[in-house]
Write a structure and sequence with these properties.
single chain, 279 residues, alpha/beta, TIM Barrel, DNA polymerase, domain 1, 2 domains, 10 helices, 42% helix, binds adenosine monophosphate, binds manganese (II) ion
Length: 279
Amino acid sequence: MKIDLHCHSRASDGSLTPTELVQRAALQQVSVLALTDHDTTAGLAEARQAAALNNVTLIDGVEISTHWRNWEIHIVGLNFDVANPALQQLLQRQSAWRDERAALIDQRLQKRGIEGALALAAQFAGNGNIGRSHFAKALVEMGVVAKPQLAFDKFLGKGECAYVGNRWCELAEAVARINAAGGVSVLAHPSKYDLSNKWLRMLVTDFVAAGGMAMETIHCQINPQLQQFLQQLAMEHQLLLSAGSDFHGPSRWLELGRGLHRPSQAGVWHHFGWVEEGQ
Ligand code: AMP
Ligand code: MN
Ligand code: MN
Ligand code: MN
């Protein structure tokens, strides 16, 4: 059996509906799946229905964008009370900033002579939370760039001309609200922030001080040395380990549940009884 505690649906910037995502998880023999859309829980009800039909255990999840010392750090929440008012209030605030930010990104693109990106990005986002990936797709569609990665490299990535600074909630606030809603707060993909080991140590120290409980150290494209460093850091701070693909849709590089090798101890899945010991 496989588990995957980080992925996205069309409720944010994934390309599959929650139902398609759960069906795909079942085909890939993923038996425990957390849907963790960016700043929204809107996909969870549909995912839950699909999970019941496909023999998948669904863990309620979310991925919250946060601000930490000038960096944008993502915090995954798992297994919280989805109806918790304070958490939903935070997610609404984050979603409102997403809409505001989208307009600001569009203004910056217009300054570069690129017209109409917002309308197209909004179309790609549909009812889901709008994000930079939708702009990347729009810029490809408009012929501005050849592929989405180039849109990030030239326009949308941190420090590029259409990057709009980070007005997300503070990291500590996201952790506190997830915990208060009965959930498990997880530091998402620490290897993806381009932080030196010294900064990673500071990040983990602050995360733990805020009440952080687990860290994603298991994903398929991580460099083994860095993974070892992160697992050591997790052990020092008695953090549980989490595993997630960060799947956004079918691609050549990534699959739900693939390459998520699980160490036998300290897994968040054992601690919370989602997977029995030895499985
Ligand atoms: P947002 O939450 O709207 O700021 O968008 C963040 C998402 O954009 C991430 O979850 C990735 O899916 C994607 N993303 C962010 N930075 C990059 C990058 N440099 N290259 C490719 N994709 C990126
Ligand atoms: Mn994303
Ligand atoms: Mn992320
Ligand atoms: Mn993600």
